[in-house]
Design a protein that fits this description.
The protein is of the alpha+beta class. It has two domains: 252 residues, Aminopeptidase; 127 residues, Alpha-Beta Plaits (2-Layer Sandwich), CATH 3.30.70.360. Helix content is 33%, strand content 24%. It has a six-stranded mixed β-sheet with strand order 1-2-6-3-7-17, sandwiched between helices. It has a four-stranded antiparallel β-sheet with strand order 11-13-9-14, with helices on one face. A three-stranded antiparallel β-sheet has the order 4-5-18. α1 crosses α3, α3 packs parallel to α9 and α5 runs antiparallel to α6. It is elongated. It starts with a helix and ends in a 5-residue tail after the last helix. The model has no long low-confidence stretch (mean pLDDT 96).
């Protein structure tokens, strides 16, 4: 099967985060088993969400793992010019939800498995495939899969994660901490505002403190010029509070995000934010003992900094890519790096410039380049020409 044919099939499954991916996993697992691959399902965070592991070759040895996520972001509210769940070819471009992020890579990886299966007796080291769920909502699905991999005696020599990099080699990305900030004051009639404590005012004071911390980070924080934004960043995504115009609101909620350059102390940054929150509340504590600003971490994943080494040289030769980059967006790579005794490199077809948008696409050339990279990888696995 050609990788574009496989992509047609994968796109047809509307595996939006928060919905079941079981139908796609059923199809893929059956197809892999038909090739002679061993497979294992690992349950995701809710009923109907699944991760899948597949292997070819001498599994008692350490090999190379390809990895990608099966879920995609929603299409609601986006002005698509074609059905997002039907692959639509227009010249060089292949349109559909997930084509870039990241079913394009999964299609290439699955068809590479078919080619590797024809040479399974030649494989000097195994080829593995990890397909995860619920990546787009904070890399939550892959964690149970990684727990399973940690228990295996032969962990991968290399994890190649196929997020869209335009087939460049990415060696790093920032970590992320998502927080819910809850500001609590005291309600009163808006005609007598001094009798209350406006929680929205507490929230705006806290937002000002967040912006001050961002300025400090830009001036004093860890910098890595390999990133498009070279420092860590704080971002207020949503703010909501109040029930009516004539009521002083007693509660306001903020969604806050911290993205950290590898080497930045996220714990210290969070403590600075909590100290700022406490200082705001202290101004009102005497009159309003119920005043609070609470910061709760709702999700986090680590950054990645693979550095140099034999495996990066290996992937440079296999991919033909000479440019090495670090990604603005997060991936499961930091979690793989933290959980396994395996280097992690990110390389895949397509660009995140097209991801998460209407009329998402990947090009035929990018798919062909990924197919060629995986063919060279299989050749190295068969010849045994891989780093120890």
């Amino acid at each position: 099967m050609h990788s574009i044919d496989m992509l047609t099939t994968l796109v047809s499954y509307p595996t939006v985060s928060g919905t079941s991916n079981a139908a796609l996993i059923d199809h893929v697992e059956g197809w892999l088993q038909g090739l002679g691959a061993t497979t294992e399902r690992v349950a995701g965070p809710f009923a109907g969400s699944w991760n899948l592991l597949a292997s070819l070759g001498p599994v008692e040895r350490r090999g190379i793992m390809l990895s990608g996520h099966s879920d995609v972001v929603p299409v609601e509210g986006q002005a698509w010019t074609s059905d997002p769940f039907t692959l639509t070819a227009k010249g060089e471009r292949l349109y559909g939800r997930g084509t870039a992020d990241m079913k394009g890579f999964l299609a290439c990886a699955l068809t590479a498995f078919a080619r590797a299966a024809e040479r399974q007796a030649e494989l000097a080291a195994p080829l593995h495939l990890a397909i995860s769920c619920e990546e787009e909502v904070g890399c939550v699905g892959v964690r149970s899969l990684l727990e399973e991999l940690q228990n295996r005696p032969a962990q991968p020599l290399l994890c190649l994660i196929g997020e869209p990099t335009s087939m460049r080699l990415a060696t790093g990305h920032k970590g992320k901490v998502a927080m819910r900030v809850t500001c609590r004051g005291r309600a009163s009639h808006s005609a007598l505002p001094a009798q209350g404590l406006n929680a929205i005012h507490l929230a705006t004071d806290f937002v000002a403190a967040v912006r001050a911390q961002q300025t400090r980070i830009e001036q004093e924080g860890v910098r890595d010029d390999a990133f498009e934004v070279p420092c860590s960043t704080l971002h207020v995504g949503t703010i909501s509070g109040g029930t009516a115009l004539n009521i002083v609101p007693d509660q306001c909620a903020i969604a806050l995000e911290l993205r950290t350059v590898p080497g930045e102390n996220a714990t210290a940054l969070l403590q600075r934010l909590r100290d700022a929150a406490d200082a705001i509340v202290a101004q009102h504590a005497a009159r309003f003992p119920e005043a609070r600003i609470d910061l709760d971490v709702v999700n986090a994943y680590p950054g990645l900094d693979s550095g140099d080494g034999d495996w990066l040289d290996f992937m440079t030769a296999v991919s033909g890519a000479n440019e090495r980059i670090k990604l603005a967006f997060g991936t499961e790579g930091g979690l793989f790096d933290a959980a396994l005794d395996s280097p992690v490199i990110i390389c895949g077809p397509g660009s995140m410039d097209q991801g998460h948008k209407p009329d998402e696409f990947v090009t035929r050339d990018q798919m062909a380049r990924c197919d060629a990279m995986l063919d060279r990888l299989i050749e190295r696995l068969c010849s045994g020409q891989i780093p120890a």
